[in-house]
Protein backbone atom coordinates (compact mmCIF):
# COMPACT_ATOMS: atom_id res chain seq x y z
CA UNK A 1 0.00 0.00 0.00
CA UNK A 2 1.32 3.45 -0.92
CA UNK A 3 1.43 5.16 2.46
CA UNK A 4 3.46 8.37 2.89
CA UNK A 5 4.63 8.17 6.50
CA UNK A 6 8.25 9.33 6.65
CA UNK A 7 11.02 10.67 4.46
CA UNK A 8 12.92 7.50 5.44
CA UNK A 9 10.82 5.46 3.02
CA UNK A 10 12.26 7.18 -0.09
CA UNK A 11 15.30 6.38 -2.21
CA UNK A 12 16.87 8.51 -4.93
CA UNK A 13 15.09 6.30 -7.47
CA UNK A 14 11.62 6.53 -5.90
CA UNK A 15 12.04 10.29 -5.58
CA UNK A 16 12.85 10.55 -9.27
CA UNK A 17 9.79 8.43 -10.10
CA UNK A 18 7.59 10.76 -8.03
CA UNK A 19 9.13 13.92 -9.52
CA UNK A 20 8.83 12.67 -13.11
CA UNK A 21 5.13 12.06 -12.44
CA UNK A 22 4.86 15.50 -10.79
CA UNK A 23 6.42 17.14 -13.87
CA UNK A 24 3.89 15.39 -16.08
CA UNK A 25 0.95 16.44 -13.90
CA UNK A 26 2.22 20.03 -13.81
CA UNK A 27 2.64 20.14 -17.59
CA UNK A 28 -0.51 18.16 -18.53
CA UNK A 29 -3.07 18.62 -15.74
CA UNK A 30 -6.01 17.70 -18.01
CA UNK A 31 -4.54 14.22 -18.55
CA UNK A 32 -5.07 13.52 -14.83
CA UNK A 33 -8.39 15.34 -14.33
CA UNK A 34 -10.39 12.13 -13.80
CA UNK A 35 -7.74 9.97 -12.12
CA UNK A 36 -9.55 9.98 -8.77
CA UNK A 37 -13.01 9.66 -10.27
CA UNK A 38 -15.18 7.88 -7.68
CA UNK A 39 -12.56 8.18 -4.92
CA UNK A 40 -13.03 9.97 -1.61
CA UNK A 41 -10.17 11.39 0.47
CA UNK A 42 -10.60 12.07 4.21
CA UNK A 43 -8.58 15.00 5.60
CA UNK A 44 -8.12 15.19 9.39
CA UNK A 45 -6.06 18.11 10.71
CA UNK A 46 -5.63 18.26 14.49
CA UNK A 47 -3.28 21.27 14.10
CA UNK A 48 -3.66 24.54 12.14
CA UNK A 49 -2.71 24.65 8.48
CA UNK A 50 -3.19 26.75 5.36
CA UNK A 51 -0.97 25.23 2.66
CA UNK A 52 -0.87 21.56 3.49
CA UNK A 53 -4.58 21.02 4.11
CA UNK A 54 -5.82 23.18 1.26
CA UNK A 55 -3.26 21.89 -1.25
CA UNK A 56 -4.10 18.27 -0.36
CA UNK A 57 -7.80 19.04 -0.76
CA UNK A 58 -7.21 20.92 -4.02
CA UNK A 59 -5.04 18.06 -5.28
CA UNK A 60 -7.85 15.54 -4.71
CA UNK A 61 -10.42 17.83 -6.35
CA UNK A 62 -8.19 18.61 -9.35
CA UNK A 63 -7.80 14.86 -9.90
CA UNK A 64 -11.57 14.42 -9.96
CA UNK A 65 -11.87 13.02 -6.44
CA UNK A 66 -14.03 14.17 -3.56
CA UNK A 67 -13.02 15.30 -0.07
CA UNK A 68 -14.42 14.88 3.43
CA UNK A 69 -12.61 17.10 5.88
CA UNK A 70 -12.49 18.51 9.39
CA UNK A 71 -11.14 22.01 9.65
CA UNK A 72 -10.13 21.75 13.30
CA UNK A 73 -10.15 18.09 14.30
CA UNK A 74 -8.74 18.67 17.79
CA UNK A 75 -11.91 20.64 18.64
CA UNK A 76 -14.49 19.31 16.20
CA UNK A 77 -13.78 15.59 15.85
CA UNK A 78 -14.32 12.84 18.38
CA UNK A 79 -10.63 13.17 19.25
CA UNK A 80 -11.97 15.89 21.57
CA UNK A 81 -14.04 13.16 23.30
CA UNK A 82 -10.99 10.97 23.78
CA UNK A 83 -11.15 8.80 20.65
CA UNK A 84 -7.73 7.41 19.72
CA UNK A 85 -6.29 8.08 16.29
CA UNK A 86 -6.29 4.32 15.62
CA UNK A 87 -10.05 4.17 16.23
CA UNK A 88 -10.58 7.22 14.03
CA UNK A 89 -8.57 5.59 11.21
CA UNK A 90 -10.57 2.34 11.60
CA UNK A 91 -13.79 4.31 11.14
CA UNK A 92 -12.65 6.66 8.33
CA UNK A 93 -11.33 3.84 6.18
CA UNK A 94 -14.91 2.63 5.97
CA UNK A 95 -15.79 5.97 4.34
CA UNK A 96 -12.74 7.04 2.35
CA UNK A 97 -10.11 5.61 -0.02
CA UNK A 98 -7.19 7.50 1.57
CA UNK A 99 -6.69 9.45 4.79
CA UNK A 100 -4.52 12.57 5.21
CA UNK A 101 -3.64 13.38 8.83
CA UNK A 102 -1.81 16.15 10.71
CA UNK A 103 -1.46 15.60 14.45
CA UNK A 104 0.71 16.94 17.28
CA UNK A 105 2.07 13.49 18.15
CA UNK A 106 5.57 12.81 16.73
CA UNK A 107 4.78 9.11 16.44
CA UNK A 108 1.16 8.94 15.24
CA UNK A 109 2.08 7.42 11.81
CA UNK A 110 3.50 4.32 13.54
CA UNK A 111 0.24 3.86 15.45
CA UNK A 112 -2.03 4.57 12.48
CA UNK A 113 -0.21 2.11 10.25
CA UNK A 114 -1.00 -0.77 12.62
CA UNK A 115 -4.70 -0.54 11.68
CA UNK A 116 -4.63 1.12 8.26
CA UNK A 117 -6.29 -0.62 5.32
CA UNK A 118 -6.20 2.43 3.03
CA UNK A 119 -3.23 4.72 2.21
CA UNK A 120 -2.31 7.09 5.04
CA UNK A 121 -0.54 10.34 4.16
CA UNK A 122 1.41 12.13 6.87
CA UNK A 123 0.68 15.87 6.67
CA UNK A 124 2.76 16.64 9.78
CA UNK A 125 3.65 14.71 12.91
CA UNK A 126 4.44 16.93 15.90
CA UNK A 127 8.08 18.02 15.79
CA UNK A 128 9.03 14.75 14.11
CA UNK A 129 8.46 14.77 10.36
CA UNK A 130 6.60 16.51 7.54
CA UNK A 131 7.53 14.28 4.60
CA UNK A 132 5.26 15.77 1.93
CA UNK A 133 6.71 19.23 2.66
CA UNK A 134 10.21 17.82 2.16
CA UNK A 135 9.11 16.19 -1.10
CA UNK A 136 7.91 19.52 -2.46
CA UNK A 137 11.07 21.22 -1.17
CA UNK A 138 13.30 18.76 -3.00
CA UNK A 139 11.10 18.99 -6.11
CA UNK A 140 11.55 22.78 -6.07
CA UNK A 141 15.33 22.46 -5.68
CA UNK A 142 15.43 19.92 -8.51
CA UNK A 143 13.44 22.30 -10.73
CA UNK A 144 15.96 25.04 -9.99
CA UNK A 145 19.24 23.13 -10.42
CA UNK A 146 18.18 19.87 -12.15
CA UNK A 147 19.84 17.61 -9.58
CA UNK A 148 20.57 17.62 -5.86
CA UNK A 149 23.92 15.92 -6.35
CA UNK A 150 26.54 18.39 -5.20
CA UNK A 151 23.99 20.72 -3.62
CA UNK A 152 25.06 23.07 -0.81
CA UNK A 153 22.19 23.67 1.61
CA UNK A 154 22.09 26.05 4.57
CA UNK A 155 19.33 25.37 7.10
CA UNK A 156 18.28 28.17 9.43
CA UNK A 157 15.79 28.92 12.17
CA UNK A 158 14.25 26.37 14.50
CA UNK A 159 16.30 23.28 13.67
CA UNK A 160 15.24 21.61 16.92
CA UNK A 161 11.46 21.65 16.52
CA UNK A 162 11.11 22.19 12.77
CA UNK A 163 9.70 18.97 11.32
CA UNK A 164 10.20 20.22 7.77
CA UNK A 165 13.95 20.46 8.44
CA UNK A 166 14.06 16.91 9.80
CA UNK A 167 12.36 15.41 6.75
CA UNK A 168 14.34 17.60 4.35
CA UNK A 169 17.69 16.45 5.74
CA UNK A 170 16.67 12.81 5.29
CA UNK A 171 15.87 13.40 1.62
CA UNK A 172 18.85 15.64 0.83
CA UNK A 173 21.21 13.09 2.38
CA UNK A 174 20.24 10.58 -0.34
CA UNK A 175 22.21 12.57 -2.92
CA UNK A 176 25.96 12.62 -3.62
CA UNK A 177 28.48 15.24 -2.50
CA UNK A 178 25.98 17.21 -0.47
CA UNK A 179 27.10 19.96 1.93
CA UNK A 180 24.90 21.00 4.86
CA UNK A 181 25.41 24.19 6.87
CA UNK A 182 23.33 25.11 9.93
CA UNK A 183 22.71 28.54 11.46
CA UNK A 184 20.39 28.90 14.44
CA UNK A 185 20.19 30.23 17.95
CA UNK A 186 21.82 27.71 20.29
CA UNK A 187 18.46 26.91 21.92
CA UNK A 188 17.16 25.74 18.51
CA UNK A 189 20.21 23.70 17.45
CA UNK A 190 19.78 20.62 15.25
CA UNK A 191 19.27 17.45 17.34
CA UNK A 192 22.25 15.07 17.43
CA UNK A 193 20.11 12.33 15.84
CA UNK A 194 20.10 14.26 12.53
CA UNK A 195 23.81 15.11 12.72
CA UNK A 196 24.49 11.38 13.22
CA UNK A 197 22.20 10.51 10.30
CA UNK A 198 24.14 12.92 8.04
CA UNK A 199 27.49 11.63 9.27
CA UNK A 200 26.40 8.03 8.61
CA UNK A 201 25.92 9.11 4.99
CA UNK A 202 29.36 10.77 4.98
CA UNK A 203 27.97 14.29 5.12
CA UNK A 204 29.65 16.61 7.59
CA UNK A 205 27.25 18.98 9.36
CA UNK A 206 28.89 22.42 9.41
CA UNK A 207 27.54 24.50 12.24
CA UNK A 208 27.78 28.24 11.55
CA UNK A 209 27.93 31.18 13.94
CA UNK A 210 26.76 33.87 11.53
CA UNK A 211 25.84 34.44 7.88
CA UNK A 212 29.52 34.95 6.99
CA UNK A 213 30.23 31.31 7.85
CA UNK A 214 27.86 30.16 5.07
CA UNK A 215 29.63 29.95 1.67
CA UNK A 216 28.62 32.75 -0.68
CA UNK A 217 27.85 30.21 -3.40
CA UNK A 218 25.48 28.15 -1.24
CA UNK A 219 22.63 26.87 -3.44
CA UNK A 220 19.83 26.97 -0.89
CA UNK A 221 19.10 29.18 2.11
CA UNK A 222 16.26 27.25 3.78
CA UNK A 223 14.83 29.28 6.64
CA UNK A 224 12.15 28.24 9.15
CA UNK A 225 9.93 29.89 11.74
CA UNK A 226 10.51 29.50 15.48
CA UNK A 227 7.91 26.84 16.34
CA UNK A 228 6.60 28.61 19.45
CA UNK A 229 3.65 26.19 19.68
CA UNK A 230 6.12 23.39 20.51
CA UNK A 231 7.63 24.72 23.75
CA UNK A 232 6.85 26.59 26.97
CA UNK A 233 8.55 29.90 27.73
CA UNK A 234 9.99 32.70 25.64
CA UNK A 235 13.21 32.13 23.72
CA UNK A 236 13.03 35.51 21.99
CA UNK A 237 12.86 36.35 18.32
CA UNK A 238 14.89 35.05 15.39
CA UNK A 239 18.39 36.57 15.29
CA UNK A 240 19.25 35.57 11.73
CA UNK A 241 16.98 37.45 9.34
CA UNK A 242 17.28 37.18 5.56
CA UNK A 243 16.68 40.63 4.11
CA UNK A 244 17.89 42.38 0.98
CA UNK A 245 21.24 43.30 2.53
CA UNK A 246 21.92 39.72 3.63
CA UNK A 247 20.72 38.09 0.40
CA UNK A 248 22.88 40.39 -1.69
CA UNK A 249 25.99 38.92 -0.03
CA UNK A 250 25.14 35.58 -1.67
CA UNK A 251 25.43 34.38 -5.25
CA UNK A 252 22.85 35.21 -7.92
CA UNK A 253 22.18 31.46 -8.04
CA UNK A 254 21.42 31.16 -4.31
CA UNK A 255 17.70 30.63 -3.77
CA UNK A 256 15.68 31.21 -0.60
CA UNK A 257 13.17 28.57 0.47
CA UNK A 258 10.82 28.49 3.47
CA UNK A 259 7.97 26.07 4.22
CA UNK A 260 5.82 29.03 5.34
CA UNK A 261 4.15 30.52 7.26
CA UNK A 262 6.95 32.99 7.94
CA UNK A 263 7.34 35.38 10.83
CA UNK A 264 10.19 37.87 10.99
CA UNK A 265 12.93 35.54 9.66
CA UNK A 266 12.42 36.51 6.01
CA UNK A 267 11.93 40.21 5.36
CA UNK A 268 9.33 41.14 2.77
CA UNK A 269 11.91 43.33 1.02
CA UNK A 270 13.23 40.24 -0.78
CA UNK A 271 9.83 38.98 -1.97
CA UNK A 272 10.29 40.42 -5.46
CA UNK A 273 13.83 39.09 -5.81
CA UNK A 274 13.79 36.16 -8.29
CA UNK A 275 15.86 34.17 -5.78
CA UNK A 276 12.97 34.25 -3.26
CA UNK A 277 11.17 31.06 -4.24
CA UNK A 278 8.98 30.30 -1.22
CA UNK A 279 5.66 31.09 -2.92
CA UNK A 280 6.62 29.03 -5.96
CA UNK A 281 7.63 26.28 -3.49
CA UNK A 282 4.17 26.39 -1.87
CA UNK A 283 2.54 26.22 -5.30
CA UNK A 284 4.63 23.16 -6.19
CA UNK A 285 3.06 21.47 -3.16
CA UNK A 286 -0.16 21.13 -5.12
CA UNK A 287 1.50 19.17 -7.94
CA UNK A 288 3.58 16.98 -5.65
CA UNK A 289 0.48 16.11 -3.59
CA UNK A 290 -1.45 15.36 -6.79
CA UNK A 291 1.36 12.96 -7.72
CA UNK A 292 1.20 11.34 -4.28
CA UNK A 293 -2.55 10.74 -4.69
CA UNK A 294 -2.01 9.30 -8.17
CA UNK A 295 0.60 6.90 -6.77
CA UNK A 296 -1.58 6.01 -3.79
CA UNK A 297 -4.95 5.66 -5.48
CA UNK A 298 -4.73 4.98 -9.19
CA UNK A 299 -4.29 1.44 -10.41
N1 LIG B 1 4.32 24.41 5.29
C1 LIG B 1 3.22 24.07 5.99
O1 LIG B 1 3.11 22.95 6.55
O2 LIG B 1 2.27 25.05 6.04
P1 LIG B 1 0.85 24.94 6.74
O3 LIG B 1 1.09 24.80 8.22
O4 LIG B 1 0.12 26.18 6.35
O5 LIG B 1 0.19 23.69 6.21
Description of the structure:
With 299 residues, the protein is an alpha/beta fold. The protein folds into two domains: 7-129 and 284-297, Aspartate/ornithine carbamoyltransferase (Rossmann fold); 131-282, Aspartate/ornithine carbamoyltransferase (Rossmann fold, 3-Layer(aba) Sandwich), CATH 3.40.50. The chain is built from ten helices and nine strands. The strands form two sheets. Strands 7-6-5-8-9 form a five-stranded parallel sheet. Strands 2-1-3-4 form a four-stranded parallel sheet, with helices on both faces. The protein binds phosphoric acid mono(formamide)ester (CP). Phosphoric acid mono(formamide)ester (CP) binds at residues 49-52, 130, 133, 259-261.
Structure keywords:
299 residues, alpha/beta, Rossmann fold, 2 domains, five-stranded parallel sheet, four-stranded parallel sheet, binds phosphoric acid mono(formamide)ester
Radius of gyration: 19 Å
Number of strands: 9
Range of helix content: 25-40%
CATH topology of the largest domain: Rossmann fold
Task: Summarize the entry for a quick read.
This protein has 299 residues and is of the alpha/beta class. The chain contains ten helices and nine strands. It has helices at 12-27, 51-62, 73-76, 85-92, 108-115, 131-145, 163-172, 192-200, 244-247, 278-297; strands at residues 40-45, 66-70, 98-103, 120-125, 152-156, 179-183, 205-207, 220-222, 255-257.
Provide the fold topology.
Elements: H1 12-27, E1 40-45, H2 51-62, E2 66-70, H3 73-76, H4 85-92, E3 98-103, H5 108-115, E4 120-125, H6 131-145, E5 152-156, H7 163-172, E6 179-183, H8 192-200, E7 205-207, E8 220-222, H9 244-247, E9 255-257, H10 278-297
Parallel strand pairs: 1-2, 1-3, 3-4, 5-6, 5-8, 6-7, 8-9
Helix pairs in contact: 1-10, 2-10, 4-5, 6-7, 6-10
